[in-house]
Amino acid sequence: MWDTSLGRIAVAVCYDLRFAVFCRRLALAGAQALVVPAEWPHPRTPHWELLLRARAVENAWWVLGVNRVGPGRGGVFEGASQAVDPWGEVAVHLGGDEGVAVVEVDPRRNGEARSRIPVFEDRVPGWDDPAPVSGSGEAPA
């Protein structure tokens, strides 16, 4: 995490976006926005877009997703870079082309969302800690 003029910024790299608890812990550590540089290939673009919005809503913070564009090892990368506000609204979406966008990231929107839906106050501390597991230790198929 980095402290900036916008506040504390966290980074989740690519596949990390799939892990809600990881992102929640970044938010609990004081991050006010999440930046996600990624290489999500074309077949998974709908997941990319859904998870960016989900992580924004779950933590009532800004999520800035930056995805590769064009062909490469691993497939075709469709882009769909976007900025999502704490309410899950897409503030800017670059589509499938390379580009640069400017978006006003107002950290006060986090407080606004969190006061209306108190996701952190309603959280049960420790609930998302790893639970003891019995069995083989193998991941589910």
Question: What keywords describe this structure?
Answer:
two-stranded antiparallel sheet; 141 residues; single chain; alpha/beta; 8 strands
Structure description:
It is built from 3 helices and 8 strands; from the N terminus they run ββαβαβββββα. The chain is an alpha/beta fold and 141 residues long. The mean pLDDT is 91.
Task: Work out the helix count.
Answer: 3
Widest sheet, order of strands: 1-2-3-4-7-8
CATH class reads: Alpha Beta
* Relative strand content: 15-25%
Helix content: 10-25%
Number of domains: 1
Outline, from the CA principal axes?
A: globular
> How many β strands by DSSP?
8
Mean pLDDT figure: 91
Find the structural class using helix and strand composition: alpha/beta
Instruction: From the 3D structure, determine the CATH topology.
Output: Nitrilase/N-carbamoyl-D-aminoacid amidohydrolase
- How far is the first residue's CA from the last residue's CA? 34 Å
What's the SSE blueprint?
Elements: E1 2-4, E2 7-11, H1 20-28, E3 33-38, H2 45-59, E4 62-67, E5 69-72, E6 75-78, E7 82-84, E8 90-93, H3 108-116
Quick recap of the structure?
The chain has 141 residues and is an alpha/beta fold. It is built from three helices and eight strands. It has a single domain, classed as Carbon-nitrogen hydrolase (Nitrilase/N-carbamoyl-D-aminoacid amidohydrolase), CATH 3.60.110.
